[in-house]
Automatic annotation (TrEMBL):
Root EC class: oxidoreductase
PANTHER family: FAD NADPH DEHYDROGENASE/OXIDOREDUCTASE (PTHR11938), GLUTAMATE SYNTHASE (NADH) (PTHR11938:SF133)
InterPro entries: Aldolase_TIM (IPR013785), ET-N_metabolism_enzyme (IPR050711), GATase_2_dom (IPR017932), Glu_synth_asu_C (IPR002489), Glu_synth_asu_C_sf (IPR036485), Glu_synth_centr_N (IPR006982), Glu_synthdom (IPR002932), Ntn_hydrolases_N (IPR029055)
Similarity remark: Belongs to the glutamate synthase family.
Names of required cofactors: [3Fe-4S] cluster; FAD; FMN
Gene name of the record: gltB
GO biological process: ammonia assimilation cycle; glutamate biosynthetic process
Protein name: Glutamate synthase large subunit
Record pathway: Amino-acid biosynthesis
Record organism: Planococcus glaciei
Length: 1530
């Protein structure tokens, strides 16, 4: 059915890009005893999760809240009696909860249709009941779209004796009704919340506290259930949607499925071939399509789950199949489970993404967590027989002495509550039971085979040798350049890594390029930002998987041994030998057919389309002839024949086979000369290829070896390096989207096209976004033929050779670069001499060359308008106040350059940005000459380097960097050779030791997490603006709407072409979009949501002229960022060697010798900014605008520039970019309304700050004791902020302010607390405890009347002490996942931790008195962890790549550890700690010392040098230089 409530697609807004997150809760009586108290408590839980839900601009309208319960039979019996309906026995009828239109006659018509369908399915329509509601509290927005809500009662026919038979029949009835209602627009408001004989869903567009007042039924004492699932929704939009509220029919879900498009595509391909003993063929046809593609990701998951469950699988089996554990690389997983997962991987790819899921059929409840544990799910089991699970603890107040144990869902693990058996079945038991249902091991061993085990092929000769004679022609025909060979292919083969570049990308988009481009270059990779996190495929390799299988898929719903008849591939990148093995094998069921993808050059562009369509017919014929492996091949290009682009052939055939219903019966392999870089392979996989043989890349590597360009490596090793590097690169690309497995990425189409016409997209790249139109098949074919002409010219004139290539470096007569010798020299001259006329020459070089269009804004022209006198236009100073320099960290650029930017921006009233490397404290104080070196904007990035309470209070704006334009979805890596002592000091790390910024913020896995971080930072500095940096991509507008709803003050939309100190070249060129698209989409979407006036919009990314500023304003931005241009002004000459620390002008380096060459001057940057403002003023006057505010969003002033004559650009349609939503004048176009952060409601403002004011003023000791609940978030942070403002980094003396709490603390308890604060919590806490701890002390232990063993029970949530820089903490109980991530200085004692503990840690000490989870110490480069390993198994759970595991040996260190544990016992009374201290000699020997290798080595050297008489700084510098020389191999 159509989701009626969202606006139609318009401009750049696309309804299918909406996202959501939420708070979830579940409560059940384990023994299945029904009561009204369960329902009441569930509503209570929901209300206490309200801060995890969202509200629109009308604060009485929620994003959605709901509850799922068992059907209370007695209640409905009595209610139906009043309606004249006689209900049969319990379980013999179903209830449909139905949203219906307001029109009475239409409702009667719909009821008649429903009665007819029920009758046709042999069941009895017993009657209808109006659902009593009280809508007096419902918000205005929700009221406008509130449906009429009815219940329909359907009695079971006598032949349906089994409950599941009735459920299946009700499912068929609902699917038939949905299909019939979907035929006509007038029925669009009809929607079943539920139709079941076991469960019922009450939900709506409500805030949680409205649920039970709206639905009167829920208050009745006889409304009894043994279980309840509740859900509070946070949507990225404000559009009213009653239907999209949760729960779904079987499940509640907190998270997002990143693989959705692929999952849906594959389900569409599989459903046609399903047969089931539970549905006859006729019934199966009635329920197709399985997935309603207009729903949210959660509801589509629910559709698939429902179908698989009703087809015969248990709840747990279905969940294991759809959301499997990471089984491929985990050595600790049992073989029986591995066999189950491997078998099911041949049936279905994982639904991958951060997810906490709870499912129920009314008899059992299953709950599971995604493979990486990216959502919180905590639960209590009580003595009164209850289980309470939720996104947070404390949502239901339960007395400590009633709790048997406290636990959490673990990553990839499951929990099953069987209400009929009255027990909780743990993960291992339920999974081993399901894994034993079939002989999966036997099936795999007998049916599945490895590629390596196939017979050796009969290869006529060495294919590389065959290729050598025509290598140059082939390279030319497929567009190879010397630059690609040397800078892409060669490093992949020699270094085994995707090569790195710097300074961003300043060549034109493919559609604006003068040269023929490969089709891959017209597509941009998508990436995760805010609504789900990217993942670290390197440090968290354990959860990734490159392994896939090929072969015909079996019946999804009735699989047997033959379903696993597949060939296993360890990587989809196939060598020539491997492809020949597949081509030549004669194994039954794997018939291989090679289909050429060539067309006659003489036939021109039309011949390509003709051959493409013929390819589809040949594939259909091959299927009918029994083919399973289809090998598409572009071998054979010669003077007569050119190749269809491999991507076009693969994707076109993939979609053709889906439409034919035969896709899953065949595997697509591609033998291609085109693919050579990571992006090419990722795209081929993303559009359906299952194996790729890049034969020309291998031939080229062979040639490089033959001519001694590659030396010391035999071909076999170079080939293996290349395959491994490409495979790792693909996994990195998919991990940017938060996807873990190549299997889930296959066919997932996670790309946007820029510059391809929708005719091509709809036919060959179905359901891919392409919002600006562009080239058709004719131009695609023309580009192929232009390359072919290079290889096989009509007339040969002299020697042929490869083009040099100029993608990444400017070359004369090559591709146009925005930064070229002419523009660089002219700009520097203008700014150094303060010559505005010279500056105008510079801007003319960029804006007047209509033949060399470099950007989308270059395609736009200003309409003629009545000018105004320039004297009436706002001043240069006022315009400059809107200017900023981009985030460049101290570390990536030199101190001189970093400070010059700050001084310049402070002089002109603009703002500079610290970047993510922290900032020296001395810079917070103005210089004697009046200059200010303080960066007004302090950035908070994923590494949290230098992010302390003191750092945050010294900001006018705090920027959360979610993504970076040049490498969105990726973290950062500062190699040890760039971590000079002064960089290490600011970052809280060790000189010479590498620093890693994780790809995600580990406290932002969803939109509600971002809202939480915004709230935390606002608490840390109540006067600063909080901004969020996003990168332009399809859907960024809806994310920006979520950012506005999360109460950020500003959102920055960065273009893909921004600069960077280092990024993989794959990312520089192929990830993200131009800022023009993202900015316009953001402005349009915020306008449609009525949120534009709440938030400032900024943009950046190769902003170079005043014209750029004016265009940005007209597209919707009111502030503007510059990064590369100010560096050029300071002397940068675009050598693009920033990542090598060899910058010849002393800017992108820390090397003292190179820094001597720095010639920059802050005044030059100030001149540049004033020139930009002056040029903008001139244009404003010309366009008739007196102020920037008047211009914002005025796209009616822009039009396509008709003067531009470009052979590819003529198909581009800018109308979506320039679209103006049809809205009333009163809807604000720029920020005028202040966000309400509700700080006055915090526990700090209401209670703590008033009671601590005297202590803060005088330093007098104070003690405060108070209760705390989960709704109290960031407790202590405002008090800490007040201390930091007054006392700076020093804080107060230890234990000056003592805050004691009892209860369950909300998220971010003790965040950023500085020295002098001691926070003691008796109870438990949620996620992010001690985030950014800045010298304070946190103590947590259970209440004294608790009867559980704290050392075995979870007491604090996930991601505790993230980015802690100083202080102490003592935790008597277990912590969740990612404990002490990026700790750089805190000393912490805890009883046990979850997966990924001490990840990326750079300093401090952590003592763990019990078990850890998997992947401990991944990316850890500093500090020391001490882990008690009583059973000797810790080594299996530790990632030892960067660390040594050592016994405790140094007596002084053993004594330090004993003192830490003694303090822990003193503060928390830990019985476990006492046990260890009582037997210290025995237990001290059982501790494992986890210490990073590089950290150990350099610290030992520093200590030796200090002992020899050197000062600390000199010793650090000497050790650093030694380490640097050793790293360089000198």
């Amino acid at each position: 059915m159509k989701m009626k409530e969202y606006p139609r697609q318009q401009g750049l807004y696309q309804p299918d890009q909406e996202h959501e997150a939420c708070g979830i809760g579940m409560i059940a009586n384990i023994n299945g005893e029904k009561s009204h108290a369960i329902v009441q408590n569930a509503v209570n839980i929901l209300c206490n999760l309200e801060h995890r839900g969202g509200q629109s601009s009308d604060t009485s309208t929620g994003d959605g809240a709901g509850i799922l319960t068992q059907i209370p039979h007695r209640f409905f019996q009595k209610q139906c009696d009043k309606e004249g309906i006689t209900l049969p026995d319990e379980g013999k009828y179903g209830i449909g909860m139905l949203f219906m239109p307001k029109d009475y006659d239409l409702r009667m018509e719909i009821k008649e249709i429903i009665r007819r369908i029920v009758k046709e399915e042999g069941q009895n329509c017993l009657g209808w009941r109006p659902v009593p509601v009280n809508d007096s509290f419902v918000g205005k927005v929700a009221s406008k779209t509130k449906p009429v809500i009815r219940q329909v009662f359907i009695g079971a026919s006598e032949d349906l004796t089994d409950r599941m038979d009735l459920e299946r029949r009700l499912y068929i009835i609902r699917k038939r009704i949905e299909q019939e209602m979907g035929l006509e627009e007038k029925y669009k408001d009809v929607y079943f919340s539920s139709l079941s004989s076991s469960t019922i869903v009450y939900k709506g567009m409500l805030i949680p506290e409205q649920l039970d007042s709206f639905y009167i039924d829920l208050n009745h004492p006889e409304f009894k259930s043994a279980l309840a699932l509740v859900h509070s929704r946070f949507s990225t939009n404000t559009f009213p949607s009653w239907q999209r509220s949760h729960p779904n029919r079987y499940s509640i879900h907190n998270g997002e499925f990143n693989t959705l498009r692929g999952n849906v595509n594959w389900m569409r391909a599989r459903q046609e071939l399903c047969t089931s003993p539970y549905f006859n063929d006729e019934d199966l046809k009635k329920v197709l399509p399985v997935i309603d593609e207009t729903g949210s990701d959660s509801s589509m998951f629910d559709n698939c789950f429902e179908f698989l469950h009703l087809s015969g699988r248990s709840l747990a089996h279905t969940a294991m199949m759809m959301v499997p554990e990471p089984w491929v690389n985990d050595p600790t997983i049992k073989q029986e489970k591995k066999d189950f997962y491997e078998y099911h991987s041949t049936l279905m790819e994982p639904w991958d993404g951060p997810a906490a899921l709870v499912f129920t059929d009314g008899k059992q409840i299953a709950a599971c967590l995604d493979r990486n544990g990216l959502r919180p799910a905590r639960y209590y089991v009580t003595k009164s027989g209850m289980i309470v699970l939720g996104s947070e603890v404390g949502a239901l107040d339960i007395f400590a002495d009633d709790i048997i144990y406290k636990e959490r869902l673990h990553p990839g693990k499951m929990l099953l509550v069987d209400l009929e058996a009255g027990k909780i079945i743990p993960d291992e038991e339920i999974k081993l039971e399901i894994a034993a249902e079939q002989p999966y091991r036997d099936w795999i061993e007998n049916q599945m085979m490895d590629l390596e085990d196939l017979p050796e092929p009969e290869m006529a000769a060495n294919q590389n040798a065959d290729l050598a004679s025509v290598l140059l022609e082939q390279q030319l025909a497929f567009g190879y350049t010397t630059e690609e060979l040397q800078k892409i292919v060669k490093p992949l083969a020699t270094d085994g890594k995707d090569p790195v570049g710097s300074m961003g990308y300043d060549s034109p988009l493919a559609v604006l390029s003068k040269k023929p481009q490969l089709l891959y270059n017209y597509f941009k990779q998508l990436f995760a930002q805010v609504t789900n996190p990217p993942i670290d495929a390197i440090r968290e390799h354990i959860i990734t998987a490159a392994r896939t299988t090929i072969g015909a898929e079996g019946n999804l719903v009735q699989p047997g041994p033959e379903s696993s008849r597949h060939i296993r591939l360890e990587t989809p990148i196939l060598t020539n030998l491997q492809l020949e093995k597949l081509r030549q094998q004669k194994i039954e069921g794997f018939k291989a057919v090679t289909l050429p993808i060539l067309f006659l050059k003489s036939g021109g562009p039309q011949a390509m389309e003709k051959e493409l369509e013929a390819l589809f017919i040949k594939a259909d014929e091959a299927f009918k002839a029994g083919a399973t492996l289809l090998i598409l091949s572009d071998r054979g290009v010669n003077k007569e024949y050119a190749a269809i682009p491999a991507l076009l052939a693969v994707s076109g055939l993939h979609h053709h086979l889906i439409r034919q219903g035969t896709r899953i019966k065949m595997s697509l392999l591609i033998e291609t000369a085109e693919a050579r870089e990571v992006h090419h392979f990722a795209m081929l996989l993303g559009y359906g290829a299952e194996g790729i043989n890049p034969y020309l890349a291998f031939g080229s590597i062979n040639e490089l070896i033959a001519i001694d360009d590659i030396t010391g490596i035999p071909f076999e090793e170079a080939e293996a390096n290349y395959v491994n590097a490409v495979t790792d690169g693909i996994i990195k690309v998919l991990s940017k989207m938060g996807i873990s497995t190549i299997q889930s990425y296959r066919g997932a189409q996670i790309f946007e096209a820029v510059g391809i016409h929708m005719n091509v997209i709809d036919r060959y790249f179905t359901r891919t976004s392409s919002r600006l139109g562009g080239i058709g098949l004719d131009i695609i074919a023309k580009e192929v033929l232009m390359r072919h002409e290079q290889a096989y010219p009509e007339r040969v004139a002299g020697d042929t050779f490869l083009q040099p290539g100029d993608e990444y470096q400017y070359r004369a007569n090559g591709e146009t670069h925005q930064y070229n010798p002419s523009t660089i020299h002219t700009l520097q001259h203008a700014c150094r001499t303060n010559n505005y006329e010279a500056f105008k020459k510079y801007t003319n070089l960029l804006t007047k060359e209509t033949s060399n269009v470099q950007s989308l804004r270059g395609l736009m022209a200003f309409k003629k308008r009545t000018p105004v006198p320039i004297e009436e236009v706002e001043s240069i100073e006022e315009i400059c106040a809107r200017f900023k320099t981009g985030a460049m960290s101290f570390g990536s650029i030199s101190q001189e350059a970093h400070e010059a930017l700050a001084i310049a921006m402070n002089r002109i009233g603009g703002r500079s940005n610290s970047g993510e490397g922290g900032e020296q404290v001395a810079r917070f104080i103005p210089d004697e000459n009046g200059d200010n070196r303080r960066s007004a904007i302090k950035q908070v990035a994923s590494g949290r380097f230098g992010v302390t309470s003191h750092y945050l209070v010294n900001a006018d704006e705090i920027q959360i960097k979610v993504a970076q334009g040049a490498k969105p979805g990726e973290g950062g890596h500062l190699p040890g050779k760039k971590v000079y002592p002064w960089v290490a000091e600011v970052r809280g790390s060790t000189p010479g030791v590498e620093l890693i910024s994780p790809p995600p913020h580990h406290d932002i896995y969803s939109i509600e997490d971002l809202a939480e971080l915004i709230f935390n930072l606002k608490n840390a500095n109540p006067t600063a603006r909080i901004s969020v940096k996003l990168v332009s991509a399809v859907g960024v507008g809806t994310i920006a709407a979520g950012v506005a709803k999360g109460r950020a003050d500003l959102v920055l939309i960065s273009g893909y072409d921004g600069g960077t100190g280092a990024a993989p070249k794959t990312s520089l060129k192929h990830t993200g979009l131009p800022w023009e698209i993202g900015l316009a989409e953001t402005h349009q979407t915020l306008m449609l949501n009525g949120l534009r006036d709440r938030i400032v919009v900024e943009t950046d990314g190769k902003m170079m002229t005043g014209r750029d500023v004016v265009v940005a304003a007209l597209l919707g931005a009111e502030e503007y960022g510059f990064s590369t241009a100010p560096l050029v002004v300071l002397g940068c000459v675009m050598m693009r060697v920033c990542h090598l620390d060899t910058c010849p002008v002393g800017i992108a380096t820390q090397n003292p010798e190179l820094r001597k060459k720095y010639m920059g001057d802050p005044e030059h940057v100030a001149n540049f900014m004033r020139f930009i403002a002056a040029e903008a003023r001139e244009l404003m006057a010309e366009l008739g605008f007196r102020t920037i505010n008047e211009m914002i969003g005025r796209t009616d002033v822009l039009e396509a520039n008709k003067a531009i004559d470009h052979w590819k650009a003529e198909g581009i349609d800018l109308s979506a970019l320039l679209y103006q939503p049809d809205l009333p004048e009163k809807v604000g176009r720029y920020a005028t309304v202040k966000q309400n952060h509700e700080l006055e409601k915090t526990l700090d403002c209401q209670e703590l700050l008033p009671r601590c004011e005297k202590a803060i003023e005088t330093g007098e000791r104070v003690e405060v004791t108070t209760a705390i609940r989960n709704i109290h978030r960031a407790t202590g942070t405002i008090v800490g902020s007040a201390i930091s403002k007054k006392y700076g980094a020093e804080g107060l003396p230890e234990d000056t302010i003592n805050l004691n709490f009892k209860g369950s603390a909300g998220q971010a308890f003790g965040a950023f607390t500085p020295k002098g604060m001691t926070m003691k919590l008796i109870g438990d806490a949620n996620d992010f405890v001690g985030k950014g701890l800045s010298g304070g002390k946190i103590i947590t232990y259970p209440a004294s009347d608790s009867t559980f063993l704290p050392e075995n029970n979870i007491i604090i949530g996930n991601v505790a002490f993230y980015g802690a820089s100083a202080g102490e903490a003592y935790i008597y109980g277990l912590a969740g996942e990612r404990f002490a991530v990026r700790n750089s200085g805190a000393n912490i004692v805890v009883e046990g931790v979850g997966d990924h503990g001490c990840e990326y840690m750079t300093g401090g000490r952590v003592a763990i008195l019990g078990k850890t989870g998997k992947n401990f110490a991944a990316g850890m480069s500093g500090g020391i962890a001490y882990v008690l390993d009583e059973d000797g198994t810790f080594g299996n759970r530790c990632n030892a790549e960067m660390v040594h595991l050592q016994p405790m040996a140094d007596p002084a260190e053993i004594e330090e550890l004993r003192e830490m544990i003694a303090k822990h016992v003193g503060y928390t009374n830990s019985k476990n700690g006492k046990r260890l201290l009582a037997n210290w000699e025995i237990y001290s020997a059982k501790f494992v010392r986890v210490i990073p290798k590089a950290y150990l080595k350099i610290n030992e050297r520093i200590n030796n040098l200090q002992n020899s008489g050197m000062s600390k700084f000199d010793a650090e510098m000497a050790a650093f230089e030694e380490s640097k020389m050793a790293g360089a191999g000198k």
